[in-house]
Fold these 2 entries.
Entry 1:
Amino acid sequence: ERMMKDWSSPVYGFFEEPTVDRVDGRRAHVFKCSGHGCKASIRRFIDMKDAGSTGNMHKHVRACWGADALHAANSAKDIDEVHNKIMRSFHRNGKITTVFEHKTNRKATYANILHTRSEIRCSLMKTGRPTYYIPSAMTVLRDVKVMFAQTRQRIAKMLMDHDGRLSFTTDAWTSPNHHVFVAFVVHFVQEGMLMSFPLDMVKVPKVSSPELIQYIVYLM
């Protein structure tokens, strides 16, 4: 803390509060960069004559944040202004090309190309899980058909083995695009719990009379 009172250079605003590390029995201050995604640290040995030098800090800030940020920091009145105003401004208004130019000496180039449909599908489904395997549409279709067939057989066996009453309900409605559907649901009590399973949903030409509904139920 005594040494920190002499650290008045605005460049300190780009680094987190230092920690003390020991290397071969020698104590050193370690300054970690506050840049987003930057893992660089500056180490200064306390027993050196240039223990208060900020030369390496200036070099890193110029490479990591850019010359404009360093120039703005040198014009700041104190460390708080660098941390609260300059750093936030460069985080908010920075350009992606500037980030690449900081890492290399070459001019940054890029291409603005829209993602394809398959790339959009994979990027959304694999967000946060880049190693996940995304099956093809045909694989998903095949698996859904297999699951449907197995589930239908299981429900059919459950209904045939059920020792009790089965109640059937039906409902008919017209979709917004003027298609008529009739749905069938079975209800029963098993081990004290009410069970309900949709059996089928049939598209019909029209629903005009109870006789037509009765005929559809008979076919079911």
Entry 2:
Amino acid sequence: MSLTTSSSVVTYHLYTFFASSCASRIRIAFHLKGIPLTSHYIDMRNDEHQSEAHRALNPSAAIPVLVVETLDPETDQTSKVTLTQSVAILEFLEETFPAQRPLLPPASQPVERARVRELVYIVTSDIFPPTNSRIATRVRGIRDSKDDKTAFVTNIMSEGFQAYEGMLERYSRDKKYSASDEITLADVCLIPQVEQARFYDMDFTVWPLLNGVIGRLEKVDAFRQSGYEYQGDTPAQYKKEL
């Protein structure tokens, strides 16, 4: 699917994997902004992300990758821009489409924008990096212990979600979502991490403010549509219908 502007046709290609929380962040943002997105599925279970073809797109051999393809109808020439790292992609999307369902407060509110980013980085810097499968699998391998992996991951997640709860207590007690009565980038990053945490049977009722935000966000179509259960590459045992 493409987006036609006054002078060009732009197609957004997302290289994704159903269980990638980083890719889910991008899916959510595109759904919220109503921008067409073409998905290309990379099977990380079979190490397709390690292939030469994928490394040509992303030297980190990671998901997601966003390729922005622009066709100039007058010259029939196509140009491509490749972006990696989910937060960089989210920032690009927000800066490209600031008026379509804004996911940051306006530039006239720098403190509020910083508050959103504080929450974004609790998830994307404090919680996600040490708990992603690449790291967690190595922890398990130290003593060949699944219990080591589970304890390591859940301890880090618990610390991160406790910090998130503390920020909600301090700044957002009366807000509908993480940082505002409107959905922001903080929420976009939060829900995919919650999905990952549920694979470890984490109980969010111990964080009442956070649990309330999660419940409200999960009723929003863009978040439901972006869930791992509803993707084109979701295996049958996990697949659900919207």
